[in-house]
């Protein structure tokens, strides 16, 4: 039984009261729950894990029924040959990783820091991870969705009768609709298809200590073309000590640290590794760190290797911002986010900034916007703020019209 009391308290702090809890165990039960809620004219929110990952607040502030989807936790399909999975919303990274290990499949997963976060929730909330499959939405393939009116829709090739490529090919004839159900309350995803990464032939984790923002900017400028070209296929993370202490409970140095990995065939890495080493050595204020047993480094190496962590501190609410990874991006980011525990993720052309529990959300959003960073992810605590930031855009109006049509 999932303990939802902390989540209910967070909802209350966000001025959302819970009028009741429903815990369906399968699709039939979920449809019945939605029918009752609809007939009562009530609000609802859906939780896929105990932390409210991906939870979308209803537009109306009136009390809502909390639909607990953690009991829908079946791994419907797991294929080692094609490196894919089909999971229900309650499946966690810990559960998926354990099943891969039990079946001894040569697969890895792009896990969140906390292993008990829902795989589907992390994907649908568009969180970014650390491995070459870190763009989780890009690696999503097919889904089953219950619309507010109770209709069940299978997306992608799942809409084709007797299709055998539901988790293999993302698209179908006509408009691509999967994105409608990310960061939205236009429907409840009951099954989500995923592409998984084959186990790497060789993995070489890297950790660099950085003395200054200027050194970080120089290093990002040198590594960005290699990240875009997939020479460095992993996300390149630059992390403050405060972020690591909040996430892993430990951090030896107070300086900014860069972590990433090289992955591929040994002969390829024999060419790439010296190239990266020369870039690091040629950056004043940056130095490669030893492969030691520091707790935060052991945890990051597991995440880079595509493994769920065995344990973790309770996750801290965060909000992601995205900006172009142009020259001087770290200086601009530091001016906007300097007082917040942050992790900077170089995903290629973009720098994502993950800010942990900022004390003054409106001030941070304004500072981020002035530095060229826009809100990119959802968070229960900051969702109202995020909606307000883009409420007047034409895109927001389209979202509203689609949502109203599906809820009619």
Give a structural overview.
- By secondary structure, the protein is of the alpha+beta class.
- The protein folds into 3 domains: 5-68; 75-198, Uridine Diphospho-n-acetylenolpyruvylglucosamine Reductase, domain 3 (2-Layer Sandwich); 203-383, FAD-linked oxidases, C-terminal domain (Vanillyl-alcohol Oxidase, Chain A, domain 3, 3-Layer(aba) Sandwich).
- It is 32% helix and 22% strand.
- It is built from 12 helices and 18 strands.
- The protein has helices at 5-13, 27-40, 93-102, 119-124, 213-228, 241-248, 266-281, 295-304, 329-337, 361-370, 383-390, 394-407; strands at 18-22, 43-47, 64-68, 75-79, 84-87, 107-108, 140-146, 152-154, 188-195, 197-198, 203-210, 236-239, 256-263, 286-288, 318-324, 342-346, 350-356, 374-375.
- The strands form 4 sheets. The protein has an 8-stranded antiparallel sheet. Strands 4-5-9-7-8 form a 5-stranded antiparallel sheet. The protein has a 3-stranded parallel sheet with strand order 1-3-2, with helices on both faces.
- β16 (342-346) and β17 (350-356) form a beta hairpin.
- α9 (329-337) packs antiparallel against α10.
- The longest helix has 16 residues, at 213-228.
- The two termini are 33 Å apart.
